[in-house]
């Protein structure tokens, strides 16, 4: 049941914009799934020029930046996503992953906690929170 709800929410995120913009978003998502991150970044940037308030485009560009190991840029795009859609748990979790890659455990923990507040069913994120809490507590 939780998976169905999560899938439904993700589908809603893709419904902003007009039909052409939605098709372009789906194309960007396919590029990300094929690990064609450079092209996904370019196409997302192009789409954002005309659809600045399409949160999922920002999120997909963040995914592409992450795949390219451009973590600072990915964090910026996650922030934009969350500015437009403060309930975007995937962007909060993605930002946490970026902070982990940058070695900033405290910021990663904050992002992961936000993601869990938005979607308590994120078991992988929950495990990361528990691990980071232990790690940070042991480093005091």
Structure description:
This protein has 140 residues and is mainly alpha-helical. 79% of the residues lie in helices and 0% in strands. It has helices at residues 2-13, 19-33, 37-50, 55-67, 71-84, 89-101, 105-118, 123-138. It is globular and about 50 Å long. 39% of the residues are buried. The mean pLDDT is 95.
What descriptive keywords fit this protein?
140 residues, mainly alpha, Serine Threonine Protein Phosphatase 5, Tetratricopeptide repeat, 8 helices
Radius of gyration: 15 Å
N- to C-terminal distance: 40 Å
What order do the helices and strands follow?
Answer: HHHHHHHH
Low-confidence stretches: none
The named CATH superfamily: Tetratricopeptide repeat domain
Q: Do you know the CATH topology?
A: Serine Threonine Protein Phosphatase 5, Tetratricopeptide repeat
In short, what is this structure?
The protein has 140 residues and is mainly alpha-helical. It has 8 helices and no strands.
Task: Please render the helix and strand layout as text.
Elements: H1 2-13, H2 19-33, H3 37-50, H4 55-67, H5 71-84, H6 89-101, H7 105-118, H8 123-138
Helix pairs in contact: 2-3, 2-4, 3-4, 4-5, 4-6, 5-6, 6-7, 7-8
């Amino acid at each position: 049941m939780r998976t169905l709800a999560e899938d439904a929410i993700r589908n809603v995120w893709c419904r902003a914009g007009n039909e052409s913009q939605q098709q372009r978003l789906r194309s960007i998502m396919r590029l990300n799934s094929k690990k064609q991150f450079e092209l996904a970044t370019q196409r997302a940037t192009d789409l954002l020029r005309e659809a600045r308030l399409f949160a999922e485009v920002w999120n997909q560009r963040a995914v592409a930046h992450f795949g390219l190991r451009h973590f600072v840029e990915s964090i910026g795009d996650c922030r934009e996503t969350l500015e437009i859609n403060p309930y975007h748990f995937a962007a909060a979790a993605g930002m946490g992953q970026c902070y982990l890659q940058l070695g900033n455990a405290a910021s990663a923990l904050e992002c992961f906690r936000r993601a869990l507040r938005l979607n308590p069913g994120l078991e992988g994120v929950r495990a990361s929170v528990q691990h980071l809490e232990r790690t940070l507590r042991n480093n005091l």
